[in-house]
Structure formats: C-alpha cells, structure tokens
Amino acid sequence: MTQTGNKAGMPHLILVDGSGFIFRAFHALPPMSNPEGVPVNAVYGFCNMLTRLMREHVGTHLAVVFDAGRVTFRNEIYAQYKAHRPDVPEDLIPQFGLIREATAAFGVPGIELEGFEADDLIASYARFIEQTGGHCTIVSSDKDLMQLISPQVEMMDPIKQKPIRAEEVEAKFGVGPDKVIDVQALMGDPTDNVPGIPGIGPKTASALVSEFGDLEAVLAAAPDMKKSKRRDSLIEHAEAARVSLRLVTLKNDVPLPVPVTDMAVQEPNEEALGDWLDRMGFRSIRHRFGLGDGKPLAQAASAAAMRFTNGGSHSVATPPPEQVPYSGYETVTDLVTLERWVTEACVAGVCAVDTETDGLDPLKARMVGLSLATAPGRACYVPLLHEGTLEAPVGHQISVSEAVVALEPLFTDSSVLKVFQNAKFDILVFRGAGAAPIAPIDDTMLISYAQSAGLHGQGMDELSKLHLGHVPITYDQVTGTGRNRIPFQQVPLDKATAYAAEDADVTLRLWLKLHPQLRTNKALALYEGYERPLIAVLSDMEQTGIKVDAHELRRLSENFEGRMATIEKEIHSVVGRPFNVGSPKQLGEILFDEMGLPGGKRGKTGAWSTDSSVLQELADQGQELPEKILAWRQLSKLKSTYTDALLKQMDPATNRVHTTFQMAITTTGRLSSNDPNLQNIPVRTEEGAQIRKSFIAPEGKVLLSADYSQIELRLLASVADVPTLREAFALGQDIHARTASEVFGVPLEGMDPLTRRRAKAINFGIIYGISAFGLSKQLGISMGEARAYIDAYFARYPGIRDYMDERKTEAKAHGYVVTPLGRRCYVPGITAKNGAQRSYAERQAINAPLQGGAADIIKRAMVRLPHALEQAALPATMLLQVHDELLFEVEKDAAEETAALVKKMMEGAADLPVPLVVETGIGANWAEAH
C-alpha cells in the first residue's frame, strides 16, 4: 500500500468499519465452507475487500474497527436500544473469530472496546486525526457515520468504491453532515429501535431541520405551528426525540485502545498470510494479492479445494498467469453447467465477461453467445443463437432469456467485479437482451486508455500483444474473409469456444496486469472518477438517442442536391466541357495538365493531389474553379454524411438517431462520435445551422444546450499564470478586446473590429501553436507583420511563452504531457528527426493539456449531472456531448430551472483560478438552443 498523507508529514488514517462489512458480505455471498467445513462466505468477502483496499487505496495508517458486543452505554440511556434486532445467523457466528484472524494475518490492527460501538471508536479516531491536521477515510456506507464527514474526514463505500462526502450526505438527508443527528433524532431508526417522533419521515425531518436549525429549535417551535398531527406528535414525543438524539450522536472522546502510531501501514508477512489463506482455501485471493507459492500445483489445488453446501466442488488454485496456456476452455450448453460457472465467478470475486453478436450496433445486434473467465486459463463459452451446419450440428443450446436469468445473481452481486473490454458495448447488448443491470464493473480498454492515451491503440488484440506477449485468435481466423466470410453464429462450436472464451481469458489477464498500474501511473483517480462512471452515462445517452425531423432532412437533401447540380453546371461551364466533378483524378488532370495552374503535387500513384488544402491554396489566389469545387464538395459532404445518412440511420418507430460515443480514440481524452458523427456539423455556416435545425424536441419538450465559453483560453490563463488574462476573465471582460488592448496598446473603448479580430486569431492560434506563416495566411497579412504580432503577444504575456516551452520540454523528457486534472497525453514524434513531424508533435504538446483539460472537465460534469437532475426531480435527459457542449431534452415547464442547475453543475466541475462560464440556450430544435 502506498503511504501518503494529507499534507507533508500528516497522517492519512483509513478506518474499516469491520462490523458493518461482515453482515454485508455474509448476505451478499453464497454459502461456502473452508476445507475444515467451517462457513466462510463472510470471511471470504471481508478478505476480498481488505485485499482490494490494501492494493488500491492510499493511506499512511490503517485499522479495522469491530463491535465488542451488543450491550453498550446506549442501553443505559434507552433499555430497548437495538432490542428488536434478530439473532445472529448460526453460519455467521463462527466467522467473527476468523475475520479477526484474517485482520491479524494481513498485518492490520483490529480494534474493539467493551461498552462502545465500533462507530464510537471510529468517531474518536477521526476526531483525533482532525486535531492533528491529518486526513481520515472511513470505509463504510453506514448512514450513522455520515455525521462525522468534514473537510478532513470522508467515507468510502466498500462495495461501490465511491467516496461519500458532504455533497452525498446532503443528497441523502437533505442537510449537511453537522445536522444529520438532528434529522435522525426526529425520524428515528426502526433497525436500531431509536424511537424518534412517530409520523415523521426523512423528508419531513430534513425540512424541519432546514427551516428551524436543529432539534431543540424544532421542538421549541412546535407549539406555535399550525394545528396538525405532526405538531401534536412533536409536542407529545419531544422527550423521546431528545433521547433519540443522545442515541444517534456518536461519542468522539472514547479512550483510544491502540495509538495511531501503531497503525502505520506495513506489508504483511507473506508466509504467515499465505499459510492462513491456504488454510481457508482462498487461493484466488492469494493469487490476487501477489503472494508467491512454491508448492507443486497438485498440492496447491488440494489445499485450495472449497466445498459448497450444494455438494459441488471447485479448485480455485492456479499457477502464475504467464504459465497458464490459452486453451482448455469449456463449451456450456445447459443451465446446470452455466449456474456452476456463475457460482464459481461469485466465489472468485472477479470475473471477465464478453459477448459475441451478429452486428456492430449494440442497440440492434443479437447476442449470439457469451463467455466468462474466472481465472487465467479458466474460461467458458455459452452459445445462444448458433445455427450450425450439417457437418457441424449445434445440438442443445441455452436460450438468451434463460441465460440472462441464470446470470442475474452474478450481475447483481455487488461483491463481484465484472470486467469487460469495451464495457459500454457489452452492457448495451445485455440490456437489449433483458439482462439485469450489471455492477460493479471494470473496463480494461479504459483502464489502459486512462494511463496511455495516444501511446498506442486500446483494442484487445493490441493490448494482449503489448502486455501479455500473446497474439489472440482473430475474428478472420474463425469466420473467414471476403466472400468466404460466414456469420459468427455459423462458426463451429469448438472454434467459437476457442475464440470467444480466449477473449474473456485475455480480458481478465489484462485486468490483472493493468489495473495495479493505475496507481503507479497516477491514473486511478482519473479512471475511477469519471472514465468508468461515464460508461453508464453514455450507455443511457446512446440508448435514448435524439429525435430528428425527417421532413426537414428530406427538404435539406433536395436543397443540397439542387445547389450541387447548379454548381456542377457552373464548373462544367468554366472548364468548357462536362466531367465527373467527384473524380479527383479527372479534376487533377484538368487543373494541372490542361489549365496549367501552379502548385500541383503528384502522389505516390502519380496522380495529382486535389485535397482541400491544395484547392484552398488555389482559391486564395483567386482561381474560380477550385473555389467552386470546394463549395460543391462541402454540399456533397453535408448531404452524404448528414441529411441522407441521418434518414437511413433514423429509427422509423421513434424518429430518433442513436450515435455511438467512442471513449478511447483520441489522445486528449475527448469523446468522438460516429454512426452518425454528430460532432463535426459545421457550427458557423448556414448549412450547419440548417442541419442542426433538423434535431428537434418531442411535443411538450424543448432542447437545452449548455456550452462552456472559451474553456481552453480559460485553462491557458490558469495554467500559464497570466494575471491580466485572469483578471479579464474574472471581470467578465471581452477577452479578445482586452488582449488587443494589452498587446497593441489601444484603448478598450471604441476598439477597431479588425484589431479585435487579429487578437482573437492570436488567442485561439496560440492554443494550437500557430506559426507566423499560419497567422499571416489566416489574417491575410505579411509574414513579417504576423511575426511582429506574435512577438508582441509573447512580450506582453511571457507566461504563455514559458508554458509552451515547458510543455515541449515535458513531452521530450517523458513522452507525454499532463492535463490540469492529471491525464497523461502521449505525444509520439516529439523527438522525431523529421522537422515537420517534430513541429506537429510540439504543437500537440502545447494544445493537448488544454484540450484534454477541457475534456476532463466536461466529463466530470457529465458524471455528476444525472444524479443532480434526479435529486432535483427535474424531467431532463442528457442526449449529446459535442466537445464543450451538452444537449438535453427537457419538459418545457422545467426548462429554465434545469438550465440553472446544469449551468451551476458545469461551472462547478473544476476549481480553477479563472471562473468557468457556461452559456445556455433553450429551443424547439438544436439550432435554436445553440
């Protein structure tokens, strides 16, 4: 466990609510026993949690806190306290002692004290840490502990692996942590037999405390309240509420049984821990903890045998992953065998899952089969819709509906991690098949992407070759290629199993290899904070889609087609004869062979290049033909890419189109969109506005657009520490006018629009490492004048020049640059010998932290917004993300309130020296809202 403190030299104490976790683990896991026949499901769950905690969460000090007994000082206050709790299940009783043994085996102090609850000990240690200036993380989801949360104390849900801070407390109780006990005292707690005030529930209690301040103030105000049952109950049961307050208030001055200095994190004794895990039969935990094992495989398997109450048996012993062959996978064709695999996965605590489909659109594809892997080399394939042939008949298969029912215990078990490669795709496929929601999950594609964006591709085959040294079976190898390709459902089951089960096996091995590296590569917060949570958000957005106006799209297609025909006639008139305007070869011959225009370059095939840069160069020289060709191409692209494509991709039942968001493509962390691509619609052209007009809200609803204003410039002002730019943003000034005033020495009042335009070009150009040549072309000025502008800019803002030089130096030293929120963006080519390639990489190094920082910030907002909208009971749905813009569909009557909340959440997604500003718009279509 990495040892870090909240501040230099200050302790970071992690306290595990052992008693709370024991019961959750016992009820979450199926019954199991160790080789001696003792029940150990709660022990197993506890060890899994402790293993993960020690492997993934930082802290300088660590302890597990237990309840010493059921009778505490609270029974003296109220004899019936916890009197209604049922007896402890018989199978759990022998596990209490084993869990204490487990704590000792892991080298972690176990703390308990007669007469006090574990919560009181946790409160006392947390208070001690606060007083010493340290930080405390309480591993628990117990609502009674939420009263302890402060800037120095937070909680972490051990199942969901999510932090619980003041924001989450307020979402749950309607008040901050300091008022939780007042709300609890009013509402009571039937679980612990805390009386409270009869008839007052959570909402009423939080409303009363919010209005009056605390319990005593509520009780004092009761006689003056309007006559009602609630008023009478408050008066009649006031003393019961006061008693309840004493019961729910945690005691934070308990004598500390173990000094904090004795809780310093230490590595466990490997031999002692390994022996104890072997005695329990927990071979999978031993393997995940990375303990060596010199025992022969047969002996290890015997020691690791675990007996289940249903009479089945399974060995979870495995040799090191690199020694396990990628073979020996099982084909599962009956429910009994599938249920055995589900049980095995639940026991393993982590399971890789993969699907095989008959298409690449997860919203339309059918699930042909699925695969599971519970350990390296231990995987199966479950065919569901295979067709077979006369030569290779399929025989019996489980139906899709039977499979999803059998998988439900695995998918809904919060103590079992389900690992995917590109989880969003598989989750949507399972959702379409009617499967239960899957949680918790990990995604090896995103785990890799969070720490290596831009360094290499994130596909499974590439990651396997890179990290495992293994070349997986390819899709082409089992389905064939070209005309000989067959659908996957016709692949013989032996080949299908070898291919599909291997995918799950590789995914699990990648997880074992890559997940521990998140911490060492400083990418854990990035992955856990918003890459992984974004999977669920984007899945919902893709499934929802956005409505389009089919009539408007057809009208636009006809309009574009008519204008193209007109321009084509004009092109033919200029040339003097007809030709295929869409043929680059014919166009090149006309431009450079027949017309003899300058600047022609031949490609490798010998044909003239006629890409947009070549045509734009000629158009800038006043050449009529290239200018018309560019106009024709623009309309052709808009027609084929958008108006025609959207009509084909629209679901005729709903008139909605469903884009796919690619999460691991870009170097900077930006999302990309395809099928259809909704992120490249021209923003500033009339045609782009017309296309956006075809995206509409259903009847009774409107579209809400929320767009970050100049976010990359704001990030530049923040990270480059430019006081004048910071001041301009803080005062809400026109940043381009302020820049022009600073750089060119002209007053803000009555500024010439041309001067402002030049400052704007420099402001945005600097973000992309613009050169004097590029600026001269953009502004239509000489190279010398452009160079003078840039020199003046850097002279006025030397911090920006320093920032640019530092980013280039950083990229050359490490191969990557880092965004303000900690994302690594790799920059291949930064040390290339080729000057053009190196210059391009240097521009990437300058821009990536800014573009990537903007991507990180909007992702943060996207993760937080669905919960915020739900908590506010606002009828709004997030539909699209287009770079710095989010688009929502919302009920008309709630549009203004939703806009205010979205603006607040987006502007609060990051704490920067420069304020973030979000501009919102509301309309019947996207063009109006944007």
Helical residue percent band: 40-55%
Mean pLDDT: 88
CATH architecture of the domain at 12-262: 3-Layer(aba) Sandwich
CATH class of the domain at 12-262: Alpha Beta
The third-level CATH topology of the domain at 12-262 is Rossmann fold
Q: Count of DSSP helices?
A: 38
CATH superfamily of the domain at 12-262: 5'-nuclease
What would you call the shape?
globular
- DSSP strand (E) fraction? 5-15%
Unreliable spans: 1-6, 292-319
Describe this structure in words.
It holds the Pfam family DNA_pol_A_exo1. It catalyses: DNA(n) + a 2'-deoxyribonucleoside 5'-triphosphate = DNA(n+1) + diphosphate. Belongs to the DNA polymerase type-A family. With 930 residues, this protein is of the alpha/beta class. Among the domains are: 12-262, Rossmann fold (3-Layer(aba) Sandwich); 270-315, no CATH class; 321-521, 2-Layer Sandwich (Nucleotidyltransferase, domain 5); 712-853, 5' to 3' exonuclease, C-terminal subdomain (DNA polymerase, domain 1, Orthogonal Bundle). It contains 38 helices and 24 strands. It has a six-stranded mixed beta sheet with strand order 3-2-1-4-5-6. A hairpin with a 2-residue loop joins strand 11 and strand 12. Helix 23 packs across helix 36. Residues 1-6 and 292-319 have low confidence and may be disordered.
SSE order and pairing:
Layout: E1 12-17, H1 18-28, H2 41-56, E2 61-65, H3 74-77, H4 93-105, E3 110-111, H5 118-131, E4 135-139, E5 153-157, E6 162-164, H6 166-173, H7 180-187, H8 202-212, H9 215-221, H10 229-236, H11 238-248, H12 270-280, H13 283-288, H14 297-304, E7 305-307, E8 313-315, E9 330-331, H15 335-348, E10 350-357, E11 367-375, E12 378-383, H16 400-411, E13 417-420, H17 423-432, E14 441-443, H18 444-452, H19 460-468, H20 475-479, H21 493-514, H22 517-520, H23 524-544, E15 546-547, H24 550-575, H25 584-594, H26 612-620, H27 624-649, E16 656-657, E17 660-662, E18 672-674, H28 686-693, E19 701-708, H29 711-719, H30 723-731, H31 735-744, H32 753-767, H33 772-779, H34 783-796, H35 798-814, E20 816-818, E21 824-826, H36 835-871, E22 876-882, E23 885-891, H37 895-907, E24 918-923, H38 926-929
Parallel strand pairs: 1-2, 1-4, 2-3, 4-5, 9-12, 10-13, 13-14
Antiparallel strand pairs: 5-6, 7-8, 10-11, 11-12, 15-16, 17-18, 19-23, 19-24, 20-21, 22-23
Helix pairs in contact: 1-2, 2-4, 7-8, 7-11, 8-9, 15-16, 17-23, 19-21, 23-36, 24-27, 26-27, 29-36, 30-31, 31-32, 31-34, 33-34, 34-35, 35-36, 36-37
